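Late entry, written up from scratch paper. The run itself happened at the end of the previous shift, but nothing got recorded in the book at the time, so transcribing now.
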Amino acid sequence: MLNMEKETIIIRKSLNGICEIILNQPEKHNSLSPKMIQELSDTFDMLKEDSKVKVLIISSSGKSFCAGGDLDWMKKQIFSDRATRIIEANKLANLLYKMYQFPKPLIAKVEGNAFGGGVGIISVCDIAICSENIRLALTEVKLGLIPATISPYVILKIGSNNAIDLFTSARNFNAQDAKNMGLIKTFCKADDIQNIIEDETEPFLLNAPSAISASKNLVKKLSFKIDQETIKFTVEALADVWENPEAIEGINAFFEKRKPNWLMET
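Output as recorded:
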């Protein structure tokens, strides 16, 4: 086993061809900070070219899988101009696209709650296995925002009707809901998840790597089209929403621990 520890993630390579990326900022609920996004992006570039890596697992440390956007990053966006917001949104958008295009089997091992961008990470994975007691949500509209950069992958996984429901209601959903919608393959007791992950990864190790890559590419070519034009649209859609006063009000209300002004007093 070879361990490589970075500032926000840990990379574990085993001799049998399985590699694991562990999101490792539990004190921040593994939120997607610019640093984590960069480290993940660099790591995916590295592992794509590593012929010894046959299967990649994404997991987490601490109680949360990934809480979505980093709070410090959100604060900075309040005072940024449109051009800067586009640059910043592109960082996550490009990471998600890189993960989506990853040529090797990509498995999410979800042992904690996932919100916003965390659901996006699950969506770009080929297979997701979750603990039974997790909660998930896409809560961007509560802040006056939209789940823009993750939306192509979420829609591809769960369909437009489910996406509209979750995008606009911001309601919590559980592992059973996620399975019913197609977001995850299955869920289990927390004590069983490692065994199930091992069962899922084993078949990939028996098959031809180039044929696996070609098979993944085949499916993507014949599915819902996600390309650079799609990414550009989602990034600009997010930048447009940031121009809306509701977004600034929603973010400020969140940090000031008060209700936003669009909520009627009762």
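Residues 148 and 237 are 7 Å apart (CA to CA).
(Scratch paper discarded after transcription.)
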